[in-house]
Amino acid sequence: MKKELLDKVILVTGGSGGIGNAIVNQLSNSGAKVISTYNHNIPVSVSDKNILWIQSNLINSEDQDNVISFTLKNFGKIDILVNCAGILEPGNFLFLSKEKLKEMIDLNLTSVLMIIQKILVVMKDQGFGHIVNIGSLGAIVPMPYSAVYCATKFALRGFSFSLSEELKGTGINFSLVTPGSVITKMLKHESQSEDSAISFTSKPITPIKVANTVLKVIQKPSIETIIPSSQSIPSKLLAFSPALFSKLYKILHRMGVAGKKKYILRF
């Protein structure tokens, strides 16, 4: 157990997903009291007494209120909020259904902003807190054939940087963890899209690596942590010059197609 996390009350959204579940388990193993939301099914492996689960559709404002009330009723405070919930629907933007478009924007962005706004009220009353958003390298590097997902992550990154400045001096820390491709059901779903390939240009990392990074960020807050760190400089160079990305995209796409074939063979 890590004494810095012992008895910390940590609310994790999307805890039944690959990244979210790894974070929930790592936090619980470190002695934190974890409240985690799930939309459909609680992970089968869950048995830890430090974890309380609550079913919630985070797009629904009333469900968000219920999650916060549930947490405060059980523990009386919220030390840390970790936002993990998210979805990706790959494919040609022209053929993306309006329902999927709206769902991605609502869950990946709007719901995150709403729950942060509500929890900030609690944290400001407490005089302390820490908010950790799980972003994506797709917030830095364009992702053709995942354009709406990419847009939500670009927006979340800008929001995170902006709000962190607003919160200076309040006792509330703000952090963004920005992973590249992660071995999850979402990546598997993306691998089934014919055109989507940019996520496979580099070797995907495990959810545990993301979870361990979250633990480090909680113990030593930083505004953004990109993982793997080897992707930090290349991704920022591509983001700095859209023209450079456009020139390199055919090469990156070929690399991604080759990487996707390796991923499919392995997983």
Description:
- There is one protein chain.
- By secondary structure, the protein is an alpha/beta fold.
- The protein has one domain (9-266): Rossmann fold (3-Layer(aba) Sandwich).
- The protein has helices spanning 18-29, 61-75, 98-126, 147-166, 185-191, 207-219, 232-240, 242-266, and strands at 9-13, 33-38, 51-55, 80-83, 129-134, 172-179, 224-227.
- A 7-stranded parallel beta sheet has the order 3-2-1-4-5-6-7, with helices on both faces.
- The mean pLDDT is 93.
What distinguishing features does this structure have?
7-stranded parallel β-sheet; single chain; alpha/beta; globular; Rossmann fold; 14% strand; 267 residues
The pLDDT mean sits at: 93
Describe the biggest sheet? 7 strands, parallel
Using only C-alpha atoms, the radius of gyration works out to: 18 Å
By helix and strand content, what is the structural category? Answer: alpha/beta
Low-confidence stretches: none
Helix content: 40-55%
Strand % is 5-15%
Q: CATH-wise, what's the superfamily?
A: NAD(P)-binding Rossmann-like Domain
Return the domain count.
1
Shape: globular
The CATH architecture designation is 3-Layer(aba) Sandwich
